[in-house]
Amino acid sequence: MNVGVANDMSIFSLVAGASLPVQLVMVILLITSLFSWWYIFIKVATVKRAETNAEDFEKAFWTGGDLNKLYEGLSVGRRKPQGMASIFEAGFKEYARHKQQGRTEVSDIMEGTRRAMRAAYNREMDDLDAHLPFLASVGSVSPYIGLFGTVWGIMNSFRGLSSVAQATLSQVAPGIAEALIATAIGLFAAIPAVIAYNRFASSVDRLSVRYESFMEEFTNILQRKS
Known about the structure:
This protein is mostly helical. It has one domain (18-225). Helices cover 85% and strands 0% of the residues. It has 8 helices and no strands. α3 (20-61) packs antiparallel against α7 (132-161) and α5 (84-100) runs antiparallel to α6. It starts with a helix and ends with a helix. 27% of the residues are buried.
């Protein structure tokens, strides 16, 4: 194979020589991949921060100190409590409000406290689940988008051969190669998204179980105090 043919078969030459629909597929997949990596970096930081905050708060909570002091420490902080601390703050705030109103029915106090913690829990889970549906969609759809570009490119290649008396490998190879690039880009976008989604979903599930366990234990503590 001479140098001119080798240059014609380079990746950039094949992409530049691809038909417009195939090029559009490649551009869509590349943009999707960039967004996926951006969200992956965001989720890495978010999940890591949530795990660190949960560990720090659990250490402070289970030291056996005064719950009022712990609550006041969270309230006077510059930053809004997040994660498990946010759930604790919502529950204890509601508990203290019922106590100040002079309610003596333990069931009413506990019901209000559970609702407040559940609302805070749902907000925290919404934050943790953010961007995960996008990663799941990229992981499942990108290979099919790439396959569409591949099928379209191969169709164009065979259509072009219909006007040729004798087809040769040099005539077929560039069209098939440029078509297969679309599938490769689709897999390049999908594989990291699938791996990231599975890992983040597992981490979020563990944090969810951790939050729910804390809510149950904290409810029992408040019930004994009542």
